[in-house]
Amino acid sequence: MSNDVDTKTVVQDTSTNTKTTKRKRHALVKRLHNFIPPFPAWKKPVKQAIALLIGVIMTLSDRCREAIGPGSLLCAIVVIFYFPARTFGVVLEDVIYGALGATIAAAYTILAMFCANLARDPTDPIAVQPESSGVLAIFMFVGVFIVSNIRQRIPRATFACINASIMFAFVLTDASSINGFTPSLAWQFLIPICIGSAICVAVAMLIWPEDSITNYMSVLTKGLEAHNAFFKEHSEAFLGISPISSSSYSQTTPTSSSLSVLHDRLQNNTLTLIDCKRAVHRDILFSRVNGQDISKLTQLTKTLQSPLYGIGVSHIVKDDICNSEPDHEVAVFKDTIQEISNMFEPLAEACYGATANIIERLHEFHDTKPRSTLNSILWPFPRLFIFKRRQQHDLEKDGKASYSSVGLSNILNQCKDVDWWPVVAPLQQHSEPLSLYAVSFYRHQLSNYCQRLISLLEFIEHLESTRKSRRLWIPSHKAIRKRFQQTHQDVSHDGTGGMNEETLVTGLSLVRTNTRIDDNEISYEQQPRRPSTLLSTTSHSTPRKTTMYYRDPDVDPPTTRMQRFWFKMHLLYSWLLQPQTFFAFKAAGGCCVLAIPFYLPWTVDWYMEWRGNWALIILQVWASSSMSGLFFFNSLLRFAGTAFGGILGMLVWEMTRANPYGMAVVLFVGFVLLYHVFVSKPMYRVVPMLTAVTMMLVVLYSYNFKVGVFQGNWPVYTIAGKRVLLVIIGLVAASIITMFPAPMTARVELRKRLAQTLRSIGGMYSILASQILIPETATMTSTEEQAKGLRRLALELQRQIADERSFLQLSSYEPPLRGRFPKENYVSVLQHVSTMADLVYLMGTATNEMQAHVRQQIAEAMAEHRRDYAASIVTIIKLLATTLSSKMALPAYMIAPEEARERYARALKNRITIRPDNINHPSFFCYSAYVVTSTAFVQELQNLLEVVERLVGVEDPQEWLRMHIQ
Fold first, then answer.
1. Cβ(535)–Cβ(485) under 8 Å?
2. Do the domains 212-369+398-483 and 749-963 sit in the same CATH topology, yes or no?
3. Fewest CB atoms within 10 A around its CB: which of 171, 382, 383, 591?
4. Quick check: 323 and 334 in contact, CB under 8 A?
5. What residues pair up with 407 in beta bridges, in sequence order?
6. CATH classification of 749-963 is 1.20.58, yes or no?
7. CA neighbor of 55 nearest in space, from 813, 635, 867, 692
8. Within 13 Å of residue 421, how many CA atoms lie on the same side as its CB?
9. Other residues' Cβ atoms within 10 Å of the Cβ of residue 748
10. d(CA 331, CA 803)
């Protein structure tokens, strides 16, 4: 009996232990499964590794290596730079640029070899001669100077410049040790570059191709969803009775944070959407929509941001009124909002539902659902279960309501027909004017938002009626032509060659004249080199086709032929002193210094044996005029990546023992792991990239020595040491070139860029103010070209502010040696500047929407007070920009923006009476928008003044008096 009990106990214990073991094993398997990233995270690394593996096979395969030549390892090097795990159109464009650059560089090197052969003495048996070496060195200097200059000024030419640098580093150095004219030397390096480029195109097109239009639709729908959530939140907050937030314009920090949050939420998706749109324009599409449709969708989506931002501003203004005004005025204001809520809540709900419906209908044009793991692995075979998913999607679509542009227009027209005077009459009698303007501002922005949603709905309805099925779309010639036009200009440095710093990236360059603009004289001129620099292009203002010179306080504009000649010499001298040009000089000089051993007969043999060309390539590729802190950080990462690559290269060689199949497998696994780090850790991308480059150089050079491509029989650690040493020499040379004579710092660049942005905002404010200050300008009818110009200026301002945010982030890499960097103050300055840019755009749209005769009436009423107020605001903006740029202290006595606004508001309240017929006029809502945004703009300017005062200080005349009492 006891034995049976013991047996049962043992069996139970055994079963319990077995269950525990299975449970632990299951937990371990689950933990490992969770640790391994999903397939979409591995798709790009595997795709890049496949491309690199094909490039490596070009060297490991005897037949391929013999067909390509001794430069076959360049196939894999070129693949690393192109990164084919991107959309096909982007890769193809980069490959075209790269092939063009390599071809031009090959022709240039052939010309250099021809000229060097002419200078060589044919009777001298020594190939390396001073005359031919001097010619090659001159061609090296000129070529590197041109390539570096182009690379600094035209970012999209980067791949062309990299390929040209590779050609210069190999051909212009190896040619010194070859007697005679041998153009085949250029082909030895041009062919592998072209083959590597073709590998990238083939992999990008055939292996898990990235769908640019799917990426675009995903970003578009996410942006519309964010816009819809923003609209619902702030519209309900405005129409509600109790305020949600407690931000007040009288408080510096809450206001700036609230308005900056509005900016971040709306602008966070815009630049990404534009980049995705450009990627779509480069691709061959198989979809219901084409590139022009995508451009129209992007344009209509961007137009939603301005009224949405206005709705957010109206919410903040409403909270400010509820928190700062007397109780009896707040009660009247809340009653008015309650009545407005009953009128406009149906329109707000219709806008919210229409946006949600737009998002659903966009999915019909191109399904944004990503492929499943099985369907991705089975590419290029058709998707599985696609019919079942589409049928389920059709059933879901049938159960949802659809909105039409006609129905939304009817709701909008009903709201526009509301008599506004009875609604806001209590505010006119018992509250401050800002309350009346705030509710009118909300109605105006809600109507604008609805109108732009109607335009978007109309376009979608047009697509639904004309785009019935998918088809192939080839990029249009217009889209291709635009890719070759430069759309961005770096203005981060001085030396503009006769131009003032006010010539900005936005194209907003006001003409400097000898006289001020009076009420009876308007002088609008254009600079011939920069057309469309001003917004006014109507028939009232005909630009004069004359040469424009920016006013220089040192000299008058040139008048004689001799003066014009020296003026051009001055422009040339200023161009040579520009940082981009000066950096190109340094890069060219550094390359010539590193190439000196190739041009001396007693050093050429060992330098060729060491393949010192790679030091020149590393110097040209990694030298840049970037910020000093970021460059030092990246230099440390490059050194680490080079060391890791050398170690991994030796490990791969020892593991495989020169077996090409084993090397291919081990290298493929290493590439996958390295590029997984490359994709998942953007901050440390330099490390896996340099690791892959150095590892391939060590392995492939060791294999070439093993099979007899190169003379010698060196051990792998010697080859690894030489490769690592040459890479480090190139990195050290790049560091010296970048840091000498004075490195650029992100914090200084941030301060100068902020000053430039402020000048641009001041220029926009001056143009807008002139439309309601000068009667002759006010009578001009607003044109579509002016509206486009205003949108273009606003977008360029946002790009400029995005660059400034990048500089602010880069400042964290710079150790504050002389003292602590006041980062919190610059964060505040950046927030205020970005908010002012948004507000001045709202002011511009409101001004352009006013009728011409209304603007004329505003300009003629209280012209003197209005001009004094505008002069104060423009002067303060100009003063803040100047103090930031020159680190000059603010004057001891100046009028504050709030004080100027209060004086002007008192004058308006005492002299201007708003009648019922004025309130019901359509332009009154535009004027309300202008007043509210102008008030917010002035408050942001006041807050900015206080922050800048903390940065630069204020002059203290009393201190001088105290110092000279005795």
1. no
2. yes
3. 382
4. no
5. none
6. yes
7. 692
8. 8
9. 15
10. 45
What is this structure's pTM? 0.80
Whether 348 and 408 have beta carbons less than 8 Å apart is answered as no
Report the amino acid identity of residue 310. Answer: G
Which candidate, 32, 34, 167, places its Cα nearest to that of 99?
167
Place of tokens 């009393």: 958
Per-residue pLDDT tens over the stretch 731-758: 888 888 887 777 778 888 889 999 999 9
Q: Are 110 and 549 in contact (CB under 8 A)?
A: no
AA letter at 391: Q
pLDDT digits over 455-504, tens only? 999 999 988 888 888 888 887 656 566 665 544 444 333 333 333 333 33
Please tell me the CATH code under which domain 212-369+398-483 is placed: 1.20.58
Sign, CA torsion 92/90/791/880: negative
763, 856 contact by CB (below 8 A): no
Residues with Cβ within 8 Å of 654's Cβ and at least 6 positions away in sequence, in order, are 716
Measured distance CA(834)–CA(851) in Å, rounded: 29
Instruction: Enumerate residues 6+ apart whose C-beta is below 8 A from 658.
Output: 702, 703, 706
Count of other CB atoms within 10 angstroms of residue 428? 16
| C-beta separation of 450 from 389 below 8 A | no
Could you give the angle at the alpha carbon of 849 between the alpha carbons of 845 and 852, nearest 5°? Answer: 130
What is the Cα–Cα distance from 698 to 322, expressed in whole angstroms?
Answer: 71
Which candidate, 94, 911, 930, places its Cα nearest to that of 434? 930
Map out the domains of the chain as residue ranges.
Answer: 2-35, 40-207+579-739, 212-369+398-483, 749-963
Q: Tokens representing 177? A: 């040790």
The SS3 assignment for 287 reads strand
